[in-house]
Amino acid sequence: MVDILLGLQWGDEGKGKIVDYFAKDYDVIARFQGGPNAGHTLYVGDKKIVLHQIPSGVFHPNTVNLIGNGVVLDPITLKKECDLVASFGIDLKKNLFIAERTHLILPTHRALDKAAELSKGEQKIGSTLKGIGPAYMDKTGRNGLRVGDLLDKNFTTSYIKLRLKHQKLLDNYAFNEDITAWEEEFFEALEFLKQLNIVNGEYFINEQLKAGKRVLAEGAQGTMLDIDFGTFPFVTSSNTISAGVCNGLGIAPQKIRDVIGVTKAYCTRVGGGPFPTELDNATGEELRKVGNEFGATTGRPRRCGWIDLVALNFACMINGVTKIVMTKADVLDAFSELQVCTDYNMNGKISREIPFRLERLKVDPVYKSFPGWNKPSSAAKTEAELPDTMKTYVEFINQYLGVKVHYISNGPGRDQLIRVS
Ligand code: GDP
Ligand code: IMO
Ligand code: MG
To answer: What is the Cα–Cα distance from 205 to 217, expressed in whole angstroms?
Structure first.
């Protein structure tokens, strides 16, 4: 049986914390897409950890973690992260596995990402510059190098061939940064990667399933950043939605049980692109301050706004969400009045659908107002201790979406998650 946990907004919903919390109930945690553009935060004791490549179950010694074929892997980031995780006494030989079909991010992919973004000027995506787009382009363009290729004696020749191709592209962009230091680090990291458990991911996971093991597929980014269904072109380069699990891990759709969608109690976005409920004012500033909304990967300030039920409803539909986890409810403690976007007003046309090319339309969100709870909620341990006004807010969302919030997160800590009925 496979459950999926993924983001319903524009990423950073708190997936890392929730996966870490649920990991004890699973035998395998598997990343199925994305790469080091992800930054998943969790706490081990009082130590804050941000994971980019390794699944968020890694701090549970009895949970196996798989980096699936749908991921793009930066060996340099992976090595640094492995060193960090190992410093907590985690035996990566025992609990980290990497699919041989996983595509590698090369230093020139990072350079190409940077060059492409620079050339876009005002229209830039706001990429994390980790080489994600170029690495996925080489996958679909059938040029990329994969983890399994490392064991091939011709790897270096293939690398040089691809590097030359990339150099020609970089010349077109007039990109002339020196990447020699990145390359040195890259080759060192490849030697490290070769020592890890490289497996045939699709057999690995299906054997686990045959043995009755429970798998949690951990999404990166969020539904509105999906390459097909997100706010294209302001998206990432992978399928972040539940459908991405089948081709990102090699499992059949009928193995999937729950799709757990994570949303903040409000909304954020980092990078460019449309964001109808964005608050470019003091309230947005307050959300950023109270919610500490700064990117876990890039440190950039996140754009903040009210919860958008039009977008959430779309995300529930596309993913087949069966359960919702609402995070950062405590951040709304500070507000006396809350707004929930129920409809989009596009030049007088009221709609509950996400239009094609949202960024080209002027969207005025239609809001329903709710009283805030005006009291601290982060000390609550049970549903009974949560403010009634918070329950009213959540109940409205449940009714609108037709999918229930099953958990409310009221702080970043491991113990700040409340099951609600
Ligand atoms: P992810 O990419 O979806 O894993 O999310 P990030 O780690 O990028 O961002 C979520 C941030 O919110 C992290 O700093 C978490 O520690 C923090 N966080 C998660 N849940 C809560 C919560 O319920 N309340 C508060 N205040 N912070 C939270
Ligand atoms: P997690 O897993 C938030 C955004 C970038 C940019 C766009 C494309 O932590 O939720 P890319 O580097 O993929 O080419 O960037 O997507 N983005 C994210 N935003 N959380 C993420 O991951 C993101 N990963 C990419 O800011 O707008
Ligand atoms: Mg993040």
So the answer is: 11
Fold of 103-193: Adenylosuccinate Synthetase, subunit A; domain 2 (1.10.300)
108 is written with which tokens? 């020139």
DSSP-derived 3-state class of residue 131:
coil
196 in the Ramachandran plot: left (φ > 0), alpha (ψ -120 to 50) or beta? beta
**Looking at domain 263-419, which of 3.90.170.10, 3.30.420.40, 1.10.10.60, 2.40.70.10 is its CATH number?**
3.90.170.10
Evaluate whether 254 touches 67 at the Cβ level (below 8 Å): no
What pLDDT does residue 318 have? Answer: 98
Whether the per-residue pLDDT at 355 is higher than 90: the answer is: yes
Ligand closest to CA 41: 1
Q: Which whole-number Å values give the CA distances from 357 to 11, 15, 119, 312, 360, in the listed order? A: 19, 27, 22, 17, 6
- Ligand 1 nearest-atom number relative to CA 292: 14
CATH class, 2-99+200-260 region: alpha beta
Q: Which amino acid is at 260?
A: I
Cα 128 from Cα 131, distance rounded (Å): 8
Ligand 1 centroid from CA 47, angstroms = 14
pLDDT tens digits along 234-290 = 999 999 999 999 999 999 999 999 999 999 999 999 999 999 999 999 999 999 999
Q: Does the beta carbon of 6 lie inside 6 Å of ligand 1?
A: no
Instruction: Based on the residue annotation, tell me whether 12 is a catalytic residue of this protein.
Output: yes
Measure the CA–CA gap between 265 and 341, rounded to whole angstroms. Answer: 12
Question: Please, what is the average pLDDT of the chain?
Answer: 97
pLDDT in tens, 164-180: 999 999 999 978 888 99
